[in-house]
Structure formats: structure tokens, C-alpha cells
From TrEMBL:
Source species taxonomy: Bacteria, Bacillati, Bacillota, Bacilli, Lactobacillales
Domain RNA-binding S4: from-to ranges: 1-63
Identification of the protein by name: RQC P-site tRNA stabilizing factor
SMART domains referenced in this protein's UniProt entry, alphabetically: S4 (SM00363)
Database matches in CDD domains: S4
InterPro entries: RqcP (IPR025490), S4_RNA-bd (IPR002942), S4_RNA-bd_sf (IPR036986)
Organism: Aerococcus kribbianus
Subunit composition and interactions: Associates with stalled 50S ribosomal subunits. Binds to RqcH, 23S rRNA and the P-site tRNA. Does not require RqcH for association with 50S subunits.
UniProt function note: Key component of the ribosome quality control system (RQC), a ribosome-associated complex that mediates the extraction of incompletely synthesized nascent chains from stalled ribosomes and their subsequent degradation. RqcH recruits Ala-charged tRNA, and with RqcP directs the elongation of stalled nascent chains on 50S ribosomal subunits, leading to non-templated C-terminal alanine extensions (Ala tail). The Ala tail promotes nascent chain degradation. RqcP is associated with the translocation-like movement of the peptidyl-tRNA from the A-site into the P-site.
Family: Belongs to the RqcP family.
Residue spans crossing the bilayer: none
GO MF, any single term: rRNA binding
Amino acid sequence: MRLDKFLKVSRVIKRRSVAKEVADKGRVSINGRPAKSGSDVVEGDEITIAFGNKDLTIRVDQIMDTTKKDQAQEMFTVVDETFKD
């Protein structure tokens, strides 16, 4: 699954256009390597996202094409959440 679609379906980022923009600006990495919006995401990958005031690292547990709100949390596990000063 594409990175931008995974971020949207899992509800880590609410809109796919925003997920694409964040990834293409170099603020997302998969397994420690910079990733673009079209990068493939597979189960077991660790995704790190640099938001404005925090860095969020998640592990991909499941890949689903569509989800309901309560199912979205099953797609990933938060590994680390670091807030910046």
C-alpha cells in the first residue's frame, strides 16, 4: 500500500493530500530511510513522522484498504512519541 494512503486510512493523518504533502517534504521515514508518498508500506515497517511539535514513530501491524473509525487503531502501534521544545 502507498504511504500516503496508509496514513489516511489508519487516520494518523486525516487527509490523503496532507499525507502526500508531508511525505514529499521529507518529513516521513520508513525504517530509517526517507520516504516519498508513493513508497510501499508493508506489515512490520516502522514509520517516523515529524510533525511541528513532535516526532511520532509507529509500527505497521495490518494493511487494510478501508476502515471504520474503531478499526483504524488496529492498523498500527505507537512505538515512540517525542515532543519537541
